[in-house]
Design brief:
With 295 residues, the protein is of the alpha/beta class. It is 40% helix and 16% strand. An 8-stranded parallel β-barrel has the order 3-4-5-6-7-8-9-10, surrounded by 4 helices. A two-stranded antiparallel ribbon has the order 1-2. Helix 1 (31-42) packs across helix 2 (57-65). The radius of gyration is 18 Å and the shape is globular. The N and C termini lie far apart (39 Å). The structure holds NADP nicotinamide-adenine-dinucleotide phosphate.
């Protein structure tokens, strides 16, 4: 298995590339998701990114049940409290207990506030963080963190946190590195690990920009795939990457990331090509208005 393991500020170890089980607008149990996760487990993936909002916890539980020989200590499970459930109901512990019941786990390794855009009359960010600290104290999660937090949100939590967030999971790929530089820099200053979701946007969800052709060119140069190039770019920037694929060959290649290294020059080439183009795939919430253009 070629995924590096890195150490968070808390001392916890985390595989640097994780497998996302997020879907949009899911209504019923999805056997294809169960199969996708089972294939990922078979292909050696051990870090899974779940969330209350995805509704895919039963599929995760069923997939894990098919591999009883994988010890819990080998798995790394992230989940997130949903802003319109745990946050709106002002009860993060109940949300996490429901997640644990549905995934049939005793604890998650990392629990995140899914985003800072809370509904009216719900918790404040500071109140939410206190509740996050309480669920960690109870052992329901090993570590706590945040997701989609901008510098202004990070500062609010940082000011009052007794237990600091260890991860900020944000959309991050070459087309957002410039737009997210302030968030990346602040997280670096506070030793909060950046986890990048949608790392393959330039070759997958939005193939129109300049990094698509460049990834292909570099894939030929290094004898790997363009997916491996973009994930290696994340690793060499020191980010955790949260990716996903149902495809067997891609699952195999995209978890085989330690056998080659991009030159510093090629990392810079991707940075520079990415900086000429802006695309945010998950342009929802405050992101829509705040980051309409950085060029
Ligand atoms: N915190 C948040 O707010 C948030 C928001 C969004 C996502 N996430 C997390 O991040 C995870 C990953 O997000 P994502 O799906 O956008 O990540 P991604 O890895 O950038 O994109 C995955 C998509 O790209 C395709 N793909 C995979 N490898 C490819 C390749 N080599 N070439 C072309 N296309 C390829 C996949 O299709 P195939 O299956 O056909 O390969 C899939 O549709 C989610 O599942 C979720 O866990 C978190």
């Amino acid at each position: 298995m070629g995924i590096p393991i890195i150490t968070l500020a808390s001392g916890q170890k985390i595989p640097q590339v994780g497998f996302g089980i997020g879907v949009l607008g899911k209504k019923a149990y999805d056997p294809a998701m169960t199969e996708k996760i089972k294939l990922a487990l078979k292909n050696g993936w051990r870090h899974f990114d779940a969330a209350e909002a995805y509704g895919t916890d039963p599929e995760l539980a069923d997939a894990l049940a098919a591999f009883p020989d994988i010890p819990r200590s080998e798995l790394y499970i992230t989940s997130k409290v949903h802003t319109s459930k745990g946050i709106q109901n002002k009860d993060i512990e109940s949300s996490l207990r429901k997640i644990l019941a549905e995934t049939k786990l005793d604890y998650v390794d990392l629990f995140l506030i899914h985003n800072p855009f809370f509904p009216e009359n719900s918790l404040t960010l500071e109140e939410a963080w206190r509740q996050m600290e309480a669920v960690k104290e109870k052992g329901l999660t090993k570590e706590i963190g945040i997701s989609n937090f901008r510098p202004v949100d990070i500062e609010k939590v940082w000011k009052i946190a007794k237990v600091k967030p260890v991860v900020n999971q944000i959309e991050l790929h070459p087309y957002l590195l410039a737009a997210e530089q302030d968030t990346v820099d602040l997280c670096k200053k506070y030793n909060i690990q950046i986890a990048s979701y949608s790392p393959l946007v330039p070759i997958g969800r939005h193939g129109k920009g300049p990094v698509n052709a460049l990834s292909e060119e570099l894939a030929k140069k290094y004898g790997v795939t363009s997916g491996q190039i973009l994930l290696r770019w994340q690793i060499q920037h020191g980010f955790v990457a949260i990716t996903s694929t149902a495809d067997d060959a891609r699952q195999k290649a995209q978890s085989d990331l330690q056998g080659f290294e991009l030159s510093a020059e090629d990392v810079k080439k991707i940075d520079e090509a990415g900086a000429t183009y802006y695309h945010r795939f998950f342009g929802w919430g405050a992101f829509k208005t705040e980051y309409h253009s950085v060029l």
